[in-house]
Write a structure and sequence with these properties.
This protein has about 130 residues and is mainly beta. About 15% of the residues lie in helices and about 50% in strands.
Length: about 130
């Protein structure tokens, strides 16, 4: 996330928002945010949202995720919102939304879902 320039914008139990400011280095051939950058912040927002509900000393891994790109991602920045739908002992399901923000106007550009696994008593090594 540091390489992309993504920042945590909000953290609450079961919900995380990640913001990514526009830079030319993050675009594809038409000048839109690249789907890789859009997907990366969505995956991280969901993962961190799940982690907020895991036991202390745990870490998180994405088991799978699917994302639909709904509109060209263009604007001043992107906002990825990860929200826990169901937190289980081992597996957690999250909803992923990514909005493009331009001049204060928000457009939903990606929607997805994700399954996470809780690695209990295995804290992150980095």
């Amino acid at each position: 996330m540091a390489h992309l320039g993504a920042e945590l914008a909000d953290v609450a139990p079961g919900r995380v928002v990640i913001r990514l400011l526009f830079r030319d280095e993050l675009t594809q051939q038409n000048g839109f945010f690249h789907a890789g950058a859009t997907s990366a912040i969505a995956d991280s927002a969901g993962g961190y949202a799940g982690l907020t509900l895991f036991p202390a000393g745990s870490s998180v891994l994405t088991v799978e995720y699917k994302i639909n790109l709904l509109a060209p991602a263009q604007g001043d920045h992107l906002e990825a919102i990860g929200s826990v739908v169901r937190s289980g002992r081992t597996l957690t399901a999250c909803q992923l939304e990514v909005f493009a923000v331009a001049g204060g106007e928000r457009t939903l550009v990606a929607l997805g879902q994700q399954t996470l696994i809780c690695l209990q008593a295995k804290p992150d090594s980095r």
